[in-house]
Amino acid sequence: MTDVDSAAVPLARVVRGDLVESVHRGHLVVLAPDGGVRLALGDPEVTIWARSSLKPLQAVGMLSSGLDVDREQLALVCASHNAEPEHLAVVEAILASAGLASDDLRNTPDWPLDADAAFDRRAAGHGRASVTQNCSGKHAGMLATCVAAGWSTQDYLDADHPLQQALAGTIAAMTGVPVAHATVDGCGAPLFSTSLVGLARSFALVAGATSGPAARVAAAMSAHPWHVAGTGRDATRFMQALPGLVAKDGADGVYAAGLPDGGALAFKIVDGSARPRPAVLAAALVVAGVAVGDLGETPVLGHGVPVGAVLPTFGPST
Helix (H, G, I), strand (E, B), or coil: what is residue 257? Predict the structure, then answer.
């Protein structure tokens, strides 16, 4: 097994003025619609924690286990949301449809990701809460799935719970990679390992699906990209600009995206930084044959004005 750091290569450079200020290394793979590799940088077989990039796969598993929600709600099940008011309203609706409430959530309490939403919450005298943590949509979906399947809800985060066993099986089946490692994610849910190329394959299956649970997930994310992330977030921006794209970020520098033609990509920034993600995602989409315009532009500021940029190390402009 390749260590995530040992075979990593530069994926993006941060240029300030006329000097390279820093470099972000990682692994990347772009798949063609037929499953062939269009581009591989670093080690596409590297084993990773895909973090929240697994949420669309987990949503497929929940639907297969009996979850019944509308498209807007399903997008929230796939989300790492900002906890803006409309996000929270949809999470509450998912719970209410299963006869549950926010007190039933077991994910780690946290502030909203959105700075304005977090400020408003503090100003109103509230503290960290499970419902405002970015994974509350996934956890609401997990709870609603348990109710639909007749499974217990108090212990839904246990690794041996039938829900988590079903989700692990879905991840292994869709990635084509057996789950070799398991731990606990930041939100408290079980987290399962996969390979980078396996993650890309799974997103090809989701984005290219024409029927079944995977197609429902793709349709929900494409129809409601704001619900998948929120105001100012790159996953939302890219999906809004590129109809049919299914894209999901993950913590610690993970990203995966699938295209309606069955093409897909995945990458892992080994330093865990979010800064190079838009530039790397845009360049990878260009390799996949998509025109992205200025979506990937990431300026480096000096005194509030651009004095450089985050630039990918690959693609037509390099």
Answer: strand
Q: Which helix (H) or strand (E) holds 63?
A: helix 55-64
User: Going residue by residue through the chain (318 aa), what tens digit of pLDDT does each one get?
Assistant: 568 999 999 999 999 999 999 999 999 999 999 999 999 999 999 999 999 999 999 999 999 999 999 999 999 999 999 999 999 999 999 999 999 999 999 999 999 999 999 999 999 999 999 999 999 999 999 999 999 999 999 999 999 999 999 999 999 999 999 999 999 999 999 999 999 999 999 999 999 999 999 999 999 999 999 999 999 999 999 999 999 999 999 999 999 999 999 999 999 999 999 999 999 999 999 999 999 999 999 999 999 999 999 999 998 766
Q: Pick the closest to residue 190 from 111, 106, 249 (CA basis).
A: 106
Residue 222 near residue 245, CB atoms below 8 Å:
yes
Residue 317 within any structural domain of the chain: no
**Burial of residue 6 (number of CB atoms within 10 Å: 0-12, 13-18, 19+):** exposed
Quote the CA–CA distance of 314 and 82 in Å, as a whole number: 31
In a domain, residue 138? The reply is yes
119 occurs within a structural domain? yes
Q: In whole angstroms, what is the distance from residue 311 CA to residue 179 CA?
A: 34
Enumerate the β-bridge partners of residue 194. Answer: 48
Count of domains observed in the chain: 1
Give the DSSP H or E segment for 235.
helix 234-241
pTM above 0.70, yes or no: yes
- CA–CA dist 272, 288 (Å, integer): 24
Q: Which CATH number belongs to the domain containing residue 29 in this structure?
A: 3.40.710
Kindly state the DSSP code that residue 110 receives in the 8-state scheme: B
List the one residue out of 264, 291, 269 whose CA is nearest residue 280. Answer: 269
Answer yes or no: is 4 within a domain: no
Beta bridge partners of 248: 256
Write out the residue range of the structural domain in which residue 265 sits: 9-312
